[in-house]
Design brief:
With about 120 residues, the protein is an all-alpha fold. The chain has helices spanning about 1-30, 35-50, 60-75, 75-90, 105-120. It contains five helices and no strands.
């Protein structure tokens, strides 16, 4: 019986992770559009070629996205990061205060943990 409960918890955790990753991916794509379609595509292509990852697949390592944005567009990264966090918080129904200084990596990880904890 314990084995079945454990499998059920693992299944639920997997579902929560997939839910978070989908919301994150969508938020990153939408967040990049603040640059406009053409510029967004150029920046994404540059990052994918230089760093060998797709930006929407960085939910496990948001620091990689933050660093790539820094080198690709320097100061503009903060605008994109704020937008991604705002969009993701809405999709996940998690409170977000835009007046706080952001640590992109920490806020993404905190949101992931909240999703895992609240949906168990």
């Amino acid at each position: 019986m314990i084995h079945k409960i454990n499998n059920k918890n693992q299944s639920r955790e997997f579902t929560n992770i997939k839910f978070f990753e989908k919301a994150y991916s969508s938020s990153v794509k939408e967040g990049m559009l603040i640059l406009g379609e053409d510029v967004s595509k150029i920046v994404q292509d540059y990052i994918e070629e230089k760093y060998s990852f797709q930006i929407e697949n960085t939910s496990q390592n948001p620091k990689a996205l933050s660093e790539a944005l820094h080198f690709a567009i320097n100061g503009g990264k903060r605008i994109i990061e704020r937008r991604i966090i705002r969009l993701l918080s809405k999709k996940l129904d998690i409170e977000y205060h835009s007046t706080e200084l952001i640590n992109f990596e920490k806020q993404i990880k905190d949101m992931r943990e909240k999703v895992l904890k609240t949906h168990k």
